[in-house]
Design brief:
The protein is mostly helical and 74 residues long. Helix 1 runs parallel beside helix 2. The chain is globular, with a radius of gyration of 14 Å.
């Protein structure tokens, strides 16, 4: 999954929409990871709140191995 993109405000409406979707997906991913780390029985995990977490559900639920590669520039 590639979430790279320009998060800077842009003149283009499409660019701003794309940035909004990326930020929503990352926020939902953070919420899912937070809920998984609490480890309460019967707790609802919000996998269906974004396409990203739907795709990553098998990996996040512990049924697969994943590798995360991050490139950060300043």
């Amino acid at each position: 999954i590639d979430l790279a993109g320009s998060e800077r405000a842009s003149e283009s409406v499409a660019r701003r929409k794309e940035g909004g979707y990326i930020n929503k997906s990352l926020l939902t991913l953070g919420n899912v990871i937070s809920k998984l780390s609490e480890k309460r029985d019967g707790q609802h995990i919000p996998y269906r709140d974004s396409k990203l977490t739907r795709i990553l559900e098998p990996s996040l639920a512990g049924n697969a191995r994943i590798a995360i590669i991050c490139t950060i520039s300043v």
